[in-house]
């Protein structure tokens, strides 16, 4: 039986256990301790732009806190990219707010500036003023931040950058997650680096980082006893998980390089097939970490389809998945308003994610080549 080639498996660097052992030796087996401090510091250094990072229990928790810091309350509207993972949008519901979903544009698959502006104008006309915009860098591809930021400025609505999939991606020399008002990262098991589970909130001010940590540790007042004037959450990262994160930061750059090599591998593999597009950068001053490489199929004479290829790969123990099903098509969001056409939906219907781990080796690639060519040339 062949071993399964995973879509995006955890990939340890080697030093993670050393930092976990430090936590054991000092008995900081808690959501507090040195590993958290060092992990946050190494993220701040890596991201630069003077950002302040709060390590949290998940990317979803980070989005929730970003919404709270942006002042989103019950009944408010939040503009959100439709083509994304549900973790982007669920926190809007946690706040009792209403998501307004926005279509993608074709170059980056991310939020369409055109439909964002159209949506804002229409909401204002209806007497609503959206409180925040959640932009995603999907599969690591940087969104069109200049265009989106100028709309955000024009209407005074802050942007939360969901960089859960985009640690290491860059937009015009800036790291994704550091460009807008707030940014979030995820260190879930399948992401470019993992802490087994975890996330982070990126802010521009130390006072906002402090506020996030206050909210993430049950909003305890500065009293000698347990007094709480605000609702709190238990969202801090564990010191054990942060130890994994410290080790992972040492190999982040090489993980990015390897995922970018995977994207190049797929571009070569699919070059002879003019009906297959490998999702890559459309201009040279952006850099995707290529967290997952995706392909889109257009209509073709041989009647090759995404589900045909997906079945073929999965039958051969090669994990492949459909891209995220857009949020405006999800049963749980059936009440939500949507601005756009059918681009997100047609990308969903025509695209696949392929194995993209930083630990994908030559033997794995040869198996992938064989199965893909078998299907396409049959
Ligand atoms: C993974 C992911 C999240 C959620 O992060 P968790 O750490 O799993 O909570 C949010 N948004 C996107 C785009 C993601 O891929």
Description:
The protein is α/β, with parallel strands linked by helices and 378 residues long. It has two domains: 16-250, Aspartate Aminotransferase, domain 2, CATH 3.40.640; 253-376, Aspartate Aminotransferase, domain 1 (Alpha-Beta Complex), CATH 3.90.1150.10. The chain is built from twelve helices and 15 strands. The chain has an eight-stranded mixed sheet, with helices on both faces. Strands 10-12-15-13 form a four-stranded antiparallel sheet. The chain has a three-stranded antiparallel sheet with strand order 7-6-11, with no helix packed on it. Helix 6 (145-155) links the parallel strand 4 (132-136) and strand 5 (159-162). It is globular, with a radius of gyration of 21 Å. The two termini are 24 Å apart. It binds pyridoxal-5'-phosphate (PLP). Pyridoxal-5'-phosphate (PLP) binds at residues 58-60, 84-85, 87-88, 136, 162, 164-165, 186, 188, 199. Pfam families: DegT_DnrJ_EryC1. InterPro entries: DegT/StrS_aminotransferase, PyrdxlP-dep_Trfase, PyrdxlP-dep_Trfase_major, PyrdxlP-dep_Trfase_small. This is DegT/DnrJ/EryC1/StrS family aminotransferase. Keywords: Aminotransferase, Pyridoxal phosphate, Transferase. It comes from Hyunsoonleella aestuarii.
